[in-house]
Amino acid sequence: MIDLEGIYQTYPGPQGPVEALRGIDLRIAAGEVFGIIGRSGAGKSSLVRTINWLNRPSQGTVTVAGRSLGDLSDAQLREARRDIGMIFQHFNLLASRTVYDNVALPLELAHWSADRIRARVEPLLELVGLSAFRDRYPAQLSGGQKQRVGIARALASQPKVLLSDEATSALDPETTRSILALLRDINRELGLTIVLITHQMQVIKQVADRVAVIDGGRIVECGPVLEVFSRPQHATTRSLIEDVVPQSLPEAVLARVQAQLQQSPDASARLLRLVFAGAQGEQALLSDVIRRFNLDLNILHGQVDEVQGQPFGSLSVLARGDAGAVAQAVAQWRQAGVGVEELSHV
Ligand SMILES: Nc1ncnc2c1ncn2[C@@H]1O[C@H](COP(=O)(O)OP(=O)(O)OP(=O)(O)O)[C@@H](O)[C@H]1O
């Protein structure tokens, strides 16, 4: 559905050119919810804006729904952009128009008749849960309701792709969850391809199928969300994931364990972090090794969660046992597909 090849974006700057995008290749399939995450200045906005040609890249090609945007005339580009809806962090609603009229705007601009507009807008207001608010003005709405108007407006021209530029960044966590659930429903019901850029891993966790991590204008990691969460390869990914899955042991917990072991030393003790995802989360991972290898396992820190309906978690444990027992337990976990890393020597 979306194909980016060799995208470079250079902006002029007071201290010389700024290279915002440095060779991006990305393929997003029809019907996917695809997340792009990165820190401030990583190049997220520059990237998402090349997908509707609001940013013309310095180099590279963008193909959306079979059309190479760089090859189109202005009229063809206007036509192609109807396939690409967009929602924004600050909603971009017109204050002087009601909810209904904001959603109707793109259709008015396309010279639709009032009857046709009504037939399109009313079901959209229903879809986003705002039928009762149709005559209100943006100033009379909450942030979440404003974003629902933004979503309905973006869907008015029946796009194939919806781009979301930090659409939940200005919302509280609960409203964020409800907007993301709405986007997921729309993706399922309408088969819409959704590309969302965000700096929040929570957003990726709740809604994306695949994620690309962008850093310094390059994609440093890309894959299915569950895979990237369980085996992050790049330091930037790890630190972004820390928000939703602890990647290390809090200093205070580590200090407590070290103090305990100083009082009663144990040469077999190892501090391990286990990461499990999907089917592994349903197995008796701990009790099995405890029984089989006669291990002592203290759970020190961790979290069990769900990503895309699959169990996913990380547990930090202190493992102790007879000579070789901990190593055998580690081997068994690894064989079962559980990620095991040694946190530090204690
Ligand atoms: N129009 C512009 N002119 C000059 N430099 C720009 C322009 N737009 C972006 N940049 C620079 O390009 C780099 C990438 O910016 P971009 O807005 O794409 O990042 P971002 O990841 O979306 O950041 P944020 O999350 O803070 O919005 C930054 O160094 C930024 O300062």
UniProtKB/TrEMBL annotation:
InterPro entries the record matches: AAA+_ATPase, ABC_transporter-like_ATP-bd, ABC_transporter-like_CS, ACT-like_dom_sf, MetN_ABC, MetN_ABC_transporter-like, NIL_domain, P-loop_NTPase
Domain ABC transporter intervals: 2-241
PROSITE patterns named in the record: ABC_TRANSPORTER_1, ABC_TRANSPORTER_2
Keyword Membrane attached: yes
GO MF annotation, one: ATP binding
Superkingdom of the organism of origin: Bacteria
Keywords recorded for this protein, A-Z: Amino-acid transport, ATP-binding, Cell membrane, Membrane, Nucleotide-binding, Translocase, Transport
Protein name stated in the entry: Methionine ABC transporter ATP-binding protein
Native organism: Curvibacter microcysteis
